[in-house]
DNA sequence: CGATAATGATACGGATCCGAAACGATCAGA
DNA sequence: TCTGATCGTTTCGGATCCGTATCATTATCG
């Protein structure tokens, strides 16, 4: 079930999708923000600041700031953990789910357009 | 010759490669910088500031700044066009070619590890 | 020559991000 | 209770980036 892709195809796919993301006018996320967003939407909850920091190998303030930014964009939301009020649970949103879905469709579409390369 | 990939696979690939890029410690490039870098290394030269700005749909200072940053990282270099000294020709470098090659290998490797998803 | 156009770089104010350190709030255990 | 650990946030100085506007240099053409 492994995906068969050649290096030149991989690069063209990577370039084209990034071009689309830049041109779509949506606030383009940094690599870190992208990794955080997709981790939240692909991995099993619950997600915490500390957990995300560990998975990404970055410090906690990086996560806090990324959540601030993506929260303003409506891509994620935060909620105190009622069982341990030190924790913050990061939650998905409708807008975030839609954005992730759009990204998936974009990658799929651009990969279909790849030639033999 | 189209690449068969499902949305969930696309997202897992996107996430994993971004995780790798963040963790590799290399200065992670923005979406714009990535698009610029790959355009320089995939499209036929010569590349100019103006041409890149048009292809990306951004303003010229964005390109100038990105070239400053990537120049410091050794990923690209600049050279005056001797036939029209208003132009600046953006050139590839050995370090840049290596970085692009590493990115390609990373994508290929991670795509091989995808399950049926 | 002189006027106009084109190119890439720079100045500017504002926004964002970084890592390190410190902080307040909360929990756990003696 | 109270001491220490844990959690997420905030602060700090410094760096980067943004878009707009402007700049110096160079080319083009009358």
Automatic annotation (TrEMBL), chains A, B:
On the tree of life, the source organism's domain of life is: Bacteria
> Where's the HTH marR-type domain?
1-117
Q: What SMART domains is this protein classified in?
A: HTH_MARR
Instruction: Extract the SUPFAM superfamilies matched here.
Output: Winged helix' DNA-binding domain
Question: Molecular function terms in GO for this entry?
Answer: DNA-binding transcription factor activity
GO BP field:
response to stress
Question: Which named protein is this?
Answer: MarR family transcriptional regulator
Which species is this record about?
Bosea caraganae
């Amino acid at each position: 079930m492994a995906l068969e892709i050649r290096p030149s195809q991989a690069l063209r796919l990577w370039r084209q999708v990034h071009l689309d993301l830049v041109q779509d006018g949506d606030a383009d996320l940094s690599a870190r923000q992208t990794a955080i967003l997709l981790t939240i939407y692909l991995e099993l909850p619950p997600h915490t600041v500390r957990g995300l920091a560990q998975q990404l190998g970055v410090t906690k303030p990086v996560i806090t700031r990324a959540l601030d930014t993506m929260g303003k964009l409506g891509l994620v939301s935060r909620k105190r953990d009622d069982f341990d009020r030190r924790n913050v649970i990061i939650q998905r949103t409708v807008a975030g789910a839609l954005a992730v879905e759009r990204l998936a469709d974009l990658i799929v579409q651009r990969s279909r357009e790849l030639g033999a390369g």
